[in-house]
């Protein structure tokens, strides 16, 4: 099963260890954390202890050099947007053009104090791509997350955009107060700068602003973050009910989970078992746990008024609701915990139940959706819009490494290999590929000033489409709604698989879109982000190359020197339907309509649904 989404699960290969830090003193940060965990059963820890733990691993030039070698070989051989990333953005987007390999090579000449500094520096470079699929991470430095017990939202009052307190688990009297300043600077400007520089999963700054305030975003928000904050505390200046302003000073607190905390007792064991493990360890801290800690009311467990009737909820991933005289389908993810025939059947039953209520229009709420399985892309597109082709065409950048891998896979036909093209057909003829040359093609395009070979365009196979269509046959009659009876509501964080569903609805079926939030001074807001293509983990690449006997080939990348290191990116690129030469990842797609959060709809999503439903048929 191929993944189209952002998931924070790290796989490992067994390689030789290159550095082992000296035995840390008994009072080192990692040791103090272990002591607190064992003696007090705590999972919350002080800023200084985590900072000391992270910074206890010295910079190793050999490890850094080998890491850059691996990254440049992986990116040069397999990253689909290597050259396209060098081009300036379309109007509406906000990112800088990057020659990623050239800038990675600059790191060879740099020196750092700690492994943390080096790892964070490389991660920041990847994040500047503003590609939600492209990320560099180390399990070593994603074990803890930092928070201050306060979360935020943004509203427009009297023509001015303001930051307000969404929740404060320490002092609830602060809820809904305006945050005028953060550490003495204008709060809106601080959040905007954070969104611009630190949030990466959208090329649209307005969407990144939403993510900076959104606990549903699984990687970096202003309130909860993996990286060590600049200082141990932060000061918020609040104004409540137009009364006198006052300061609230909060310490950053770090927390983790038992899966990690049971794996070390000092810096050496932390390094051996988490940064460079022989055996895989648990995934990095799951933001579902974080939102549970905060009892965050989002996703399907949202506050709703009495006008909302729940039709059904499938695996905490898809919800069906009737609100007043319209329906809502809330798709939270295309990666349910279990995906089998029962999952598809339950989703179908949810749609059938909604249809039986007699609603004439439906809001498809795709907010806070980071993607999932391609099978569900095809499933939703066929189910909702059976009269249009359910998928976009894509191609692959054919580097020497990619050519060799695809050629060997075509000959050997190994199982579960990311270089396997047998799941796809020729996009023009819809026939199976009969030779490797039929896949590779002879297409030369110029991207970022570089001429490069690209494969023939590919599409989903008819076998896959027919298999999914058979799953939908339990519908005795098609769904009653036409494309004009739907609209799509998002906060822009509708990424990867979700973006394919949204953009298919628009490009193939002309469905209306509504985006909420963002920066008010920016007139438009994207309704989806990072459609990209098929996302892979570096260890999937190494596993696939191993099956092909290519791990020791001089063309191919070597595994990272530290097994807890990982990079993700896409290995293909998807094209639009309206403009078949346009790469969707770099195409600005603003919504037809724009809404903003206020003190009511931020807490009661049914109000926002009603506002969106009122726009159906307005285009």
TrEMBL record:
InterPro entries: ClpP/crotonase-like_dom_sf, S41A_metabolite_peptidase. Coiled coil: none annotated. Keywords: Signal. Transmembrane segments: none annotated. Residues 1-17 form the signal peptide. This is Peptidase s41 family protein. The lineage of its organism: Eukaryota, Fungi, Fungi incertae sedis, Mucoromycota, Glomeromycotina.
